[in-house]
């Protein structure tokens, strides 16, 4: 067993995280960013953005057939969102765990939705559900050149 080989096979992933309009209106932006920062992931993209209807529809295109789709598009475009790209080994699944279940009443205490929201239609945050969707969504929400590559000073204190 060679732990250094296992470590070198671990995939650096990217995920698209978005504070939805309710999270911005409720003043939860700092709290939400802080949870990902404290965990130890790397912020590579960040902006406040008023989402046009077409972009919201493209982002949620897999849900087009759902009865709540029009309400979802209205919700996401109802005010500015905070768009973020986060990078790290295992960041996609870990972010989903930090976020919690889609229905905030079912989400565990300690998760973002479990601590900060009460209804699916106002669940304050989005997170990509796979590394492939992470890449797709970052490309969708950010212009080329917007995300930044950098090395955090704390890097050697987070991973051996
Ligand atoms: P997520 O990956 O946990 O965000 O959940 P989904 O991908 O299943 O759904 C995307 C988003 O659509 C959710 O975060 C909610 O904002 C919204 N949504 C999902 N299901 C419902 C629903 O039954 N009613 C309403 N109003 N919104 C929903
Ligand atoms: Mg989803």
Shape: globular
Instruction: Please provide the count of β strands.
Output: 4
Question: Would you list the SSEs in sequence order as H and E?
Answer: HEHHEHHEHHEHH
Quick one: biggest sheet? 4 strands, antiparallel
Roughly what fraction of the amino acids lie in strands?
A: 15-25%
Determine the number of helices (DSSP H or I, runs of at least 4 residues). 9
Q: Taking strands numbered 1, 2, ... along the chain, how are they ordered across the largest sheet?
A: 2-3-1-4
Distance between the termini: 17 Å
Cofactors and ligands: guanosine-5'-diphosphate, magnesium ion
Question: What would you call the structural class?
Answer: alpha+beta
How do you describe this structure in short?
ATP binds at residues 20, 68, 96, 102, 113, 123. This is Nucleoside diphosphate kinase. With 160 residues, the chain is of the alpha+beta class.
Describe the structure.
- The two termini are 17 Å apart.
- 42% of the residues lie in helices and 18% in strands.
- It has nine helices and four strands.
- The longest helix is centred in the N-terminal third of the chain and has 11 residues, at 29-39.
- A four-stranded antiparallel β-sheet has the order 2-3-1-4.
- It has 160 residues and is of the alpha+beta class.
- The chain has helices at residues 3-9, 21-25, 29-39, 53-59, 69-76, 91-99, 112-116, 131-141, 155-158, and strands spanning 12-19, 42-49, 81-89, 125-127.
- The chain is globular, with a radius of gyration of 16 Å.
- Guanosine-5'-diphosphate is lined by residues 63, 68, 71-72, 102, 120-121, 123, 126, 129.
């Amino acid at each position: 067993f060679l732990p250094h080989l296992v470590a070198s096979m671990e995939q650096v992933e990217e995920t698209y995280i978005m504070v939805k309009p309710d999270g911005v209106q409720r003043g939860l932006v700092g709290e939400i960013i802080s949870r990902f920062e404290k965990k130890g992931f790397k912020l590579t993209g960040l902006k406040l953005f008023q989402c046009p209807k077409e972009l919201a529809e493209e982002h949620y295109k897999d849900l087009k057939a759902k009865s709540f789709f029009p309400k979802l598009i209205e919700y996401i475009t109802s005010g500015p969102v905070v768009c973020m790209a986060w990078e790290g080994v295992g960041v996609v699944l870990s972010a989903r765990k930090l976020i919690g279940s889609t229905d905030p009443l079912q989400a565990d205490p300690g998760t973002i939705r479990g601590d900060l929201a009460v209804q699916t239609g106002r669940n304050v945050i989005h997170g990509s559900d796979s590394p492939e969707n992470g890449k797709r969504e970052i490309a969708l929400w950010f212009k080329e050149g917007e995300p930044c590559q950098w090395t955090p000073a704390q890097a050697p204190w987070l991973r051996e």
